[in-house]
Amino acid sequence: MAYSWFKAFHIIGFVVWFAGLFYLVRLFIYHVEANQEPEPAKTILKNQYQIMEKRLYHIITIPGMIVTVAMAIGILSTNPDLLKETWLHFKLGFVGILLIYHHYCGRLMKKLAADECKWSGQQLRALNEAPTLLLVVIVMLAIFKNNLPTDITAWLIFGLVIFMAVSIQMYAKIRRRNKEKMLAEMNQVNQVPQAQS
């Protein structure tokens, strides 16, 4: 029975953890793009994003990570034979990468707060795809274990994930280009009356 409880809360923990990681980097993107806004909107937005980032990181993301890791330890304590499984070694390796990503996001948050972040919105969008790929691999390993499918279906699913990531990047690029075009048109409209006066 303890195994089932640990497993249930492990799943709840990683859902919360991933939700936090997905939204956190999204806030970073908005935070960086706020630099393009005129004052006072720029300062107001950056301050608001900083508050949201801190709350999300400390109230949702970190507790989600702690519950996930603690419940995984509980699962392994009730079933130590799992540690002999090859699939689990790979899964733990990818979770290790996810932990590094999590802590790197914490560093980025501090750099954004200090106005020292050199990442562009586009670079952060690419960074935001990392947890999606890790989620897919970790879940596939947990479900299929040592029988990870390598047939055409698996490759189609992998291709779909890559396609989704590329589509999101393309959409962001088009949206940014349209915004720049609109701002250029607005600047031209504002300059015409000034030239006439």
Automatic annotation (TrEMBL):
One of its GO terms (molecular function) is protoporphyrinogen oxidase activity. Its EC number is 1.3.99.-. Keywords: Cell membrane, Heme, Iron, Membrane, Metal-binding, Oxidoreductase, Transmembrane, Transmembrane helix. It is a multi-pass membrane protein. Its cofactor is heme b. Coiled coil: none annotated. It catalyses: protoporphyrinogen IX + 3 A = protoporphyrin IX + 3 AH2. InterPro entries: HemJ-like. Its main location: membrane. Heme binds at H10, K91. One of its GO terms (biological process) is protoporphyrinogen IX biosynthetic process. Belongs to the HemJ family. NCBIfam families: protoporphyrinogen oxidase HemJ. HAMAP family: HemJ. This is Protoporphyrinogen IX oxidase. The gene is hemJ.
